[in-house]
Amino acid sequence: MTTDTRTPVIIQADKSVPARYAESVSDAQTNLHVHADAYSTEGFWDKVSKVAKKAGKTVLNPAFRMYFAAQDSDTPIWARTTIYGALGYFISPIDALPDFTPLLGYTDDLTLMAGAVAIVAAHIKQEHAERADKVLKRWFD
User: Fold this and answer.
1) Is residue 16 within 8 Å of residue 78, measured between CB atoms?
2) Helices 41-71 & 77-91, crossing angle to 10 degrees?
3) Are the beta carbons of 42 and 89 closer than 8 angstroms?
4) What is the DSSP letter of 111?
5) What is the pLDDT of residue 12?
6) Which helix (H) or strand (E) holds 8?
7) Using an 8 Å Cβ cutoff, are 51 and 7 in contact?
8) pLDDT number for residue 128
9) Which of 85, 94, 103, 117 is positioned for an S-S bond with 32, CB 3.0–4.6 A?
């Protein structure tokens, strides 16, 4: 018997979302629904372990920072929604640009993650960045 390790998806109104980000958060929530089945903690670690060398630090750095921020109970639900949508897209086998495309394979993943990081930047703490850097150092150095 297998256990479902997907992170529960909870979408609710969050009054802490700044008005200027409301549309982006709404878009991210829509993105989450599209990619929610693709996101799981197990799926995330499976994907990054398989593609680490090919994707490189540039792609994995924002992924790890967001991953650790999403695990933090201080991160508001709207920010976690944005993060899980971006990470769900990253681990999904369906991409705008397939990951195996030479030179461009992770461009769409990186672009989406950069947008998500910009939206949730205030919730990516120094400790999240340090944990991400520690994992990257262990894998690449």
Assistant:
1) yes
2) 150
3) no
4) H
5) 40
6) none
7) no
8) 97
9) 85
Nearest-Å Rg of the Cα atoms of the chain is: 14
In the chain, % of residues over pLDDT 70: 62
Alpha carbon distance 69, 123 (integer Å): 7
The answer to whether the CB of 12 falls within 8 A of the CB of 82 is: no
User: In whole numbers, what is the pLDDT of the chain averaged over residues?
Assistant: 74
Cα(138)–Cα(27) distance, integer angstroms: 34
Pick from 87, 95, 96, 99: which is nearest to 32 by CA?
Answer: 87
Cα angle value 116/138/109 (rounded, 5°): 25
DSSP string for residues in 55-76:
HHHHHHHHHHHHHHHHH-TTS-
Q: How many whole angstroms separate alpha carbon 77 and alpha carbon 112? A: 19
Question: Each residue of 20-62: pLDDT tens digit?
Answer: 555 555 555 555 555 555 567 888 888 778 777 777 888 889 9
Rounded to whole angstroms, the Cα distance separating 113 from 14 reads 22
What pTM, to 2 d.p., does this model score?
A: 0.65
